[in-house]
Structure formats: structure tokens, C-alpha cells
Amino acid sequence: MAESHPVLFVHGLWMTGAEGLLIRQRLAAYGLSVAPFRYGTTSDGLTQVLSALSTAIREQGPEVRLLGHSLGGLIILSCLAEHPELTVGPVVLMGSPVNGSQAARGLARIPGAGWMMGEAAAVELLGTTQRVWARGTPLGVIAGDWPLGIGAMLAELPSPHDGAVAVAETQLDGATDQRVFHVNHLGLLTSVAVAHAAAGFLNSGHFPD
């Protein structure tokens, strides 16, 4: 039997990790053992979340792969930047606005709506710092271009977008490769094609042809 690679799945804003069950099951068929990393997206502070994720990565060992959806991808990037001593395998980000989120800025402009984001999301989504992937570890970016989602109601998103995050917002300098699928933001978690691409990258460090 082929070796089963460990993967940590880091979920996005207003989610719990349970919504990733389907993609976790699909990745298992490709020899990946996926465990959810759960955190309170609106209740936990960023320092707390990054510390907990770094501990989870260490517990999984140096071969652990990382899969982040939306805000989860930003949490992964911040954790690895804060802990350069951590060793990980290939990383995949799905619909993660690494260049800041127009939808989040639209939400923040609504009076009294700031509490809906929480501290961790506010820091990660509203920041303007240009992120760069400088590790030698392969990193793959997956984005969607089906413009159906509440994010498009909060702000005028650049096209193409997935209803919450623009493709341009997901483009990370230094990333190994990027793929765009005709799905919306939540569809990234349910698409068979996305699961196939993510599994290929997590196993080999490149997207399958």
C-alpha cells in the first residue's frame, strides 16, 4: 500500500471545518490522510490561532501537507512566515485572497458590521502588505471564476471572481503554479475537479495535467 501523507485542512471565515468533509473524503482516495484544523474565526485572536496551528504542524511531523480554503490559506501563510523553522510538504491555497479582500473591505464599511469579522480575519483580509512565497516548498494556488456569492453584493469585485474572491486577489508571487476552475467560492470545496487538482499537487508538488 502506498504511503498515506498527512494533510492539515484549514477552513475559512464563518466556517468550522465540517464543510470540508467532502473534499477530505475525496483526497483520501488519493492516499492523503486529511485532518481539520479548527479555530474560532470570529472569537480567537490571530496570535492564538497561529500558535495553535504551529503546534498542530509540529505534531503532524515534517511531511505534513497544508490545504487552506479562503481565510485558511492566509492563516497558513502567516503561520509559516512567523515560524520559518517549520518544515512542511506541498501547500495548496484555494480561493485565498492573499492580496487583500475587496469583499471584506466592503463588509468593514457597513456600520456595526466589524464584529462579524473578528480580529484574525480583519488583520488577514484587510491588510495591504504584498505577500511573497519565498520557501523552496511547492505551493499551488486554486481559484474559482463562477461569480455567484454574497461577496459580490458587498463590493464590486474585479472580474473574474468566485462570488467572494477575485482571481487577481489569489495570485501569489513565488507560487509554483495556479489553476482556475469554473466554480464559486464554496464550490471549491465540492468540485471533483478541484479535489483532483489539489490531491495531485499535495502528493507531488505540481498540478496534474
3D architecture notes:
This protein starts with a strand and ends in a 5-residue tail after the last helix. The protein has one domain: Alpha/Beta hydrolase fold, catalytic domain (Rossmann fold), CATH 3.40.50. Helix content is 34%, strand content 15%. The protein has a six-stranded parallel beta sheet, with helices on both faces. The model has no long low-confidence stretch (mean pLDDT 95). The protein has eight helices and six strands. The chain is globular. With 209 residues, it is of the alpha/beta class. Strand 3, helix 3 and strand 4 form a beta-alpha-beta unit.
Any chance you could write out the topology, listing elements then pairs?
Elements: E1 5-10, H1 21-28, E2 32-37, H2 46-60, E3 65-69, H3 71-82, E4 91-94, H4 102-108, H5 118-126, E5 139-144, H6 151-154, H7 167-170, E6 177-181, H8 192-204
Helix pairs in contact: 2-3, 3-5
Strand order of the largest sheet: 2-1-3-4-5-6
Distance between the termini: 24 Å
The unreliable regions are none
Radius of gyration: 16 Å
Structural class: alpha/beta
Arithmetic mean pLDDT:
95
Number of domains: 1
| Total DSSP E strands | 6
What is the top-level CATH class?
Alpha Beta
* Fourth-tier CATH superfamily name: Alpha/Beta hydrolase fold, catalytic domain
CATH architecture: 3-Layer(aba) Sandwich
Largest sheet: 6 strands, parallel
The CATH topology, please?
Answer: Rossmann fold
Helix content: 25-40%
